[in-house]
């Protein structure tokens, strides 16, 4: 499937999003609750991943040089969800609603698994032709490159280090000016490119440090409307469709969303699609631009 054709830009568009005429309720909510942190909805789900782990094991056995993980599968599932559920790729800034032209998923990674180790910011921008294999290899390649050094070597990490070195009074003035430009959508690309606060989803792989999925607030700065935390996997008895309980492998997933971009019904169905993908991991082999065929009824 080809990438979505770009519409002609209007004067209300931003560089990072197209203006969307929102329904009356959502328009008024943007004025009543201008801060993203005022409109947070937290959703928690135990997702059945019993079928996913044998699938990943088989894939890794066939290609041991490219280790595919649960996190890679989750990122791919989220990318497919965003492709099929476009309202999830919206944001509100400056009292207006916008929709992005591209999907972007960001996360923070430790350069070393040590308390004192620095963190690095990573952004993945899946395209229609991408599937689990291509997304997994891109994440592994980016992480490998980032971990060659224990310190920032460029990009947003190095820019943040330069800002942090400024005197306090000067940093306060600059940050206030940046936030003003953020409101009007005028922040230059060098400030937003690679910044996880300007991506569709910011996620945290807490399972990699043996931590549960937790609530994490959204940020008023930037345009990110969704924060996802992925916790540990464990065995748990699940009530099956036939009414019987069965011991299954489940993964804790927490999602914090800006309720102004869509309604709870739309959010719930989007989460169900991710759950469906985990139960049918063969969908991860298909390009995300191809419909999943999931019946939302």
Describe the structure.
33% of the residues lie in helices and 22% in strands. The chain is of the alpha+beta class. The protein has a single domain (20-285), classed as Chloramphenicol Acetyltransferase (2-Layer Sandwich), CATH 3.30.559.10.
Short description:
The chain is of the alpha+beta class and 297 residues long. It has eight helices and nine strands.
Features:
297 residues, alpha+beta, Chloramphenicol Acetyltransferase, 6-stranded mixed β-sheet, 3-stranded antiparallel β-sheet, 9 strands, globular
Look at the helices and sheets and give the structural class. Answer: alpha+beta
Beta-strand portion reads 15-25%
Q: Helix count?
A: 8
Radius of gyration: 20 Å
Number of strands: 9
**CATH architecture assignment name:** 2-Layer Sandwich
- SSE order in H/E notation? EHEHHEEEEHHHHEEEH
Number of domains: 1
Low-pLDDT runs of 5+ residues are none
CATH class: Alpha Beta
Distance between the termini: 24 Å
CATH topology: Chloramphenicol Acetyltransferase
Mean pLDDT: 88
Helix content estimate: 25-40%
């Amino acid at each position: 499937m080809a990438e979505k054709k770009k519409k002609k830009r209007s004067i209300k568009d931003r560089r990072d999003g197209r203006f969307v005429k929102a329904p009356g309720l959502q328009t008024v909510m943007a004025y009543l609750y201008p801060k993203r942190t005022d409109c947070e909805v937290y959703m928690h789900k135990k997702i059945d991943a019993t079928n996913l782990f044998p699938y990943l094991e088989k894939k890794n056995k066939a290609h041991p040089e490219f280790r595919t993980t649960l996190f890679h599968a989750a990122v791919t599932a989220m990318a497919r969800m965003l492709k099929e559920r476009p309202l999830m790729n919206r944001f509100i800034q400056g009292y207006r609603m916008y929709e992005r032209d591209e999907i972007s998923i960001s996360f923070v990674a430790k350069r070393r698994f040590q308390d004192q180790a620095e963190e690095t910011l990573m952004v993945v921008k899946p395209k229609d032709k991408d599937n689990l294999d291509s997304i997994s290899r891109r994440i592994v390649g980016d992480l490998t490159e980032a971990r060659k050094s224990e310190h920032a070597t460029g990009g947003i990490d190095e820019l943040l280090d330069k800002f942090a070195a400024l005197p306090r009074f000067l940093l306060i003035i600059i940050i206030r000016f940046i936030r003003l430009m953020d409101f009007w959508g005028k922040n230059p690309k060098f400030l937003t490119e690679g910044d996880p606060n300007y991506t569709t989803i910011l996620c945290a792989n807490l399972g990699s440090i043996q931590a549960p999925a937790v609530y994490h607030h959204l940020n008023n700065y930037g345009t990110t409307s969704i924060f996802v935390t992925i916790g540990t996997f464990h065995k748990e008895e699940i009530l099956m469709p036939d009414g019987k309980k069965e011991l299954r492998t489940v993964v804790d997933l927490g999602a914090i969303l800006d309720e102004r971009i869509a309604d709870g019904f739309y959010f719930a169905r989007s989460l169900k699609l991710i759950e469906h993908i985990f139960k049918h991991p063969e969908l991860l082999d298909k390009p995300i631009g191809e419909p999943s065929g999931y019946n939302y009824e």
